[in-house]
Design a protein that fits this description.
The protein is α/β, with parallel strands linked by helices. The chain folds into four domains: 5-101, Response regulator (Rossmann fold); 128-263; 275-360, no CATH class; 372-474, Arc Repressor Mutant, subunit A (Orthogonal Bundle), CATH 1.10.10. Helices cover 56% and strands 10% of the residues. It has a six-stranded mixed sheet, sandwiched between helices. Strands 1-2-3 form a three-stranded parallel sheet, with helices on one face. A hairpin with a 6-residue loop joins strand 5 and strand 6 (183-185). Helix 2 runs parallel beside helix 3 (57-67), helix 10 packs antiparallel against helix 13 (348-360) and helix 12 (332-344) packs across helix 16. The radius of gyration is 29 Å and the shape is elongated. The protein starts with a helix and ends with a helix.
C-alpha cells in the first residue's frame, strides 16, 4: 500500500519479476482501501508506506495486527526516525526498508520471508495433522487454509500390538519424511501414519509401491505388521472422519501374531469372544480363586488355542486375559507387568507362555535374580550389544529368565520398561558418536547403535532430543 501509484507499480514490478513464490493479490492507495483488500484477499503479507492521508501506515499496522496476529508486515518508507522504527518493532514488523528501495535488497528480504512463511506453514500443517490424529477438533476453515483443495491418500502402519496403557514412551510427533510433502504421525515408535498428497503420485500403482516400500522398511521382521489403507483419495472435508475411522479400524481389527493389510470400509467383521470362550474364562477364574493351578493352566491353554484358531481380535483377548489375571493379582506393579506382557507377546502361543510365567511360576526367579548386581549384569550385556539385534526376547533367551520377571526388574531398578531403557541407551550412544564426529554419515550412526533404517532412527532421535541427528553435533558445539 502506498499513496503514490508509481511507488506501488515499482514494488509490484520487483515482486512479479524477481520474487518467486509470491503473487500480488491487491493494491491500495489508502489505509481504508487496504483493509478492504486485506479482508477480501486473505493475504499473507502486507507491504505499506508509513505516512499517508487518512489512516496512516502505523495505524493500519495496529489494526491489521488486531484482526490477524499471524500476517507478515513490511514497511517501506522515506522516514528513518527512531519512533517509527520503535513502533515497527512493537508491532512485530518483519522488515523496515528505507526508500529508495534497492531491488536486490528487497528481493533478498522477500527470499528470507518466503522461507519463514514456508516453515510456519509446515509447522501449522504438522500440528493440524497431529490434532486430527489425536481426535482434537479442528476448524474446517483452518484446514482449508493450510491444506487447500488438495486431495490426499493415507495409510497407517502398526508394528505388533496397540499402544499399551502403561507405556512410558515420549510424546511422538508429526514429522515430514524424506520426500518433504508427505506427513507422518506416530503415537509411539511402533507406528507410522502417512498422509500423501495425490498430486505427488502418478498412479494408484505408485501408491501401492510406496505402501510396500514403507511397510518393508518399518516392519524389520519383528513380530507382525498391520496396515490400514484408505483406498481412495479424499479432500479436507472428509479428513477428520476418515482419520478417526482408521484408528477405530486398527483398534477393532488388530490380531495378535497375524500380519494384515486392511482396506478401510472393506474389512471383514472382527471376531469377538464367543459364548463357549466366555464360559471357559469363568472356569479359569474359578480355578484360580480355589488355587487349582493345574486345572486353570489346562483351561487357559484351550482358551488360547481357541483364540488363535478363530483369530479373535487383540482388544477382546486383552480384556479376557486381564479379567483372568486380575482375580489373582491386582496392584500397580502387577498391572504394569501384565500390560508389558500383552504388549510384547508376538503370538498367542507366546502370550500363553508369558501369562503362565506371570500366574503360575513360584518365586524361583527371585533371590539372586532379583538383585542390583543381577540387573547391572543385564544392563552391561545390553550396552555392549547395542549395534546388534537386541530385544526383550533375545535377553530372555540369553539370561534364561521369563519375560515377566525381566520386565519386573527393569520396572523395579530402572523405573522404565526394557524397550525404553534400550532405546534411551541407543540414543545416548548415538549422541556420543555425533559429538565426536559431526561429519559422520547418519546411516552409519544408525547401524552403529542398532537401527537398520536411518529415517526411523532420525525420527526416534528427534523424539528423545528435540533435534535431528544432522543438527545435534553443530548445535552442541557452540
Amino acid at each position: 500500500m502506498d499513496d503514490e501509484v508509481a511507488a506501488i507499480e515499482y514494488i509490484q514490478g520487483i515482486i512479479e519479476s524477481k520474487c518467486t513464490g509470491f503473487e500480488v493479490v491487491g493494491t491500495a492507495k489508502s489505509g481504508e482501501k487496504c483493509l478492504e483488500v486485506f479482508e477480501r484477499s486473505g493475504a499473507d503479507v502486507i507491504i505499506t508506506d508509513i505516512k499517508m492521508a487518512g489512516i496512516g501506515g502505523m495505524e493500519l499496522i495496529e489494526e491489521i495486527r488486531r484482526r490477524n496476529r499471524d500476517i507478515q508486515l513490511i514497511i517501506v518508507s522515506g522516514y528513518s526516525e527512531f519512533e517509527y522504527a520503535k513502533k515497527a518493532i512493537t508491532n512485530q514488523v518483519f522488515e523496515y526498508i528505507l526508500k529508495p528501495v534497492d531491488p536486490e535488497e528487497f528481493t533478498n528480504i522477500m527470499v528470507r520471508l518466503f522461507q519463514m512463511l514456508e516453515n510456519l506453514e509446515l509447522s501449522e500443517k504438522k500440528q493440524l495433522f497431529k490434532d486430527l490424529c489425536q481426535g482434537i477438533a479442528v476448524e474446517k476453515e483452518k484446514l482449508k487454509r493450510f491444506f487447500g483443495n488438495e486431495e490426499y491418500y493415507a495409510f497407517l502402519l502398526r508394528r505388533n500390538h496397540l499402544p499399551a496403557q502403561f507405556r512410558d514412551n515420549k510424546n511422538a510427533e508429526v514429522v515430514t519424511n524424506i520426500y518433504g510433502s508427505y506427513f507422518l504421525y506416530a503415537r509411539d515408535e511402533e507406528e507410522a501414519f502417512y498422509l500423501l498428497p495425490k498430486s505427488c503420485l502418478n498412479s494408484k500403482r505408485e501408491l501401492k509401491l510406496i505402501i510396500k516400500k514403507c511397510s518393508e522398511k518399518f516392519y524389520q521382521e519383528q513380530g507382525f505388521l498391520t496396515i490400514v489403507e484408505i483406498p481412495r483419495a479424499f479432500g479436507i472435508d472428509m479428513m477428520t472422519t476418515l482419520i478417526g475411522e482408521v484408528y477405530k479400524t486398527l483398534q477393532q481389527c488388530l490380531i495378535c501374531g497375524i500380519s494384515q493389510n486392511i482396506v478401510l470400509r472393506e474389512q471383514q467383521e472382527p471376531v469377538d469372544i464367543n459364548e463357549e470362550e466366555q464360559d471357559r474364562i469363568q472356569k479359569i477364574v474359578f480355578y484360580l480363586s480355589k488355587k487349582q493351578y493345574i486345572k486353570a493352566k489346562a483351561e487357559l491353554k484351550i482358551l488360547c488355542l481357541s483364540f488363535e484358531k478363530r483369530r479373535v481380535v487383540q482388544v477382546q483377548v486383552e480384556t479376557a486375559i486381564k479379567k483372568i489375571c486380575r482375580c489373582s493379582y491386582y496392584n500397580n506393579d502387577s498391572e504394569y507387568l501384565l500390560n508389558e506382557i500383552l504388549y510384547h507377546s508376538l503370538s498367542i502361543e507366546e502370550l500363553f507362555q508369558n501369562i503362565c510365567d506371570f500366574l503360575f511360576k513360584e518365586e524361583k526367579e527371585g533371590g539372586k535374580l532379583d538383585t542390583p548386581e543381577y540387573f547391572e549384569s543385564v544392563c552391561r550385556f545390553v550396552e555392549s550389544h547395542l549395534a546388534e539385534h537386541v530385544s526383550l526376547h533375545s535377553i530372555v533367551n540369553e539370561f534364561h529368565v521369563s519375560q515377566s520377571h525381566l520386565s519386573y526388574i527393569f520396572r523395579k531398578y530402572a523405573n522404565q520398561s526394557f524397550n525404553m531403557y534400550l532405546t534411551s541407551k541407543r540414543i545416548e550412544k548415538a549422541k556420543q558418536i555425533l559429538m565426536r564426529d559431526p561429519d559422520i554419515l547418519i546411516k552409519d550412526v544408525a547401524l552403529m547403535v542398532g537401527f537398520r533404517d536411518q529415517f526411523y532412527f532420525s525420527r526416534v532421535f528427534k523424539m528423545y532430543t528435540n533435534v535431528r541427528p544432522t543438527e545435534y553435533g553443530s548445535k552442541n558445539d557452540g
